[in-house]
Amino acid sequence: MSETVRIAMISGSLRAGSGSTALLQTVAEVFEPEVVAARMYFGMAALPHFNPDDDFEPLHPAVAELRAVIEGADALLLSTPEYAGDLPGSFKNLLDWTVGGNEIVDKPTAWLNSGAPGRADGAHAALRTVLGYTGARIVEEACVRLTVSRAAIDAEAGTVADPGVREGLRAAVGSLVAAVAAGRSAPVRPGAGNPW
Predict the structure, then answer these.
(1) CB distance 73 to 188 below 8 Å
(2) Pick from 15, 48, 3: nearest CA to 114
(3) What gap in Å lies between CA 157 and CA 126, rounded to an integer?
């Protein structure tokens, strides 16, 4: 495929050294930039508390940025830990801001679980439910568990060096890229102020 696939990546964790964040940041290291343009979104902490009364133009600048990043992408890749058996509150707040827009509708979307077996299953079940409300097109073969231990994270680079994890990441993201290629006949709407 000759056209670069733009993937917007969002971690559900605000914690420094998060396995979810490290896993996503590794995508740029396992794909050539002309194949995958991977962009991390780091604005979650700046989002206001979701209020349906505020979900109209002009949007809060942080909300407008979030929606522009998603709209400008060909695909969406998420990774989140679990907190108290569910999605972390800040990540659920972010997702709530996406429901009122149409940026995710039919967009190839997948998530990665960086937890050990049995961890974060509740969060990912909740994530599937919320994404159903946004109209996302879930790419099942790209939704995988790639366990990341704290020791596997390069603290300086913020990425994962483990060869097995990187190979699993390459396969998962490759499935997401293939889903984009299959639906390329419907171009992404550029949108005003597209950050890509």
Answers:
(1) yes
(2) 15
(3) 30
Cβ contacts of 75 within 8 Å, gap of 6 or more: 5, 6, 7, 8, 107, 108, 109, 110, 139, 176, 177, 179, 180
Question: Model-level pTM?
Answer: 0.91
DSSP assignment, residue 57? Answer: S
pLDDT one-digit tens code per residue, 127-163: 999 999 999 999 999 999 999 988 889 988 999 999 9
Residue 64 vs residues 10, 30, 190: alpha-carbon distances, Å: 15, 30, 14
Half-sphere exposure of 39 (CA within 13 A, CB side): 21
Q: pLDDT tens digits for 29-87?
A: 999 999 999 999 999 999 999 999 999 999 999 999 999 999 999 999 999 999 998 99
For tokens 């967009």, name the residue.
107
Region of 163 on the Ramachandran plot (φ > 0 left; ψ -120 to 50 alpha; else beta): alpha
Three-class secondary structure of residue 159 per DSSP: strand
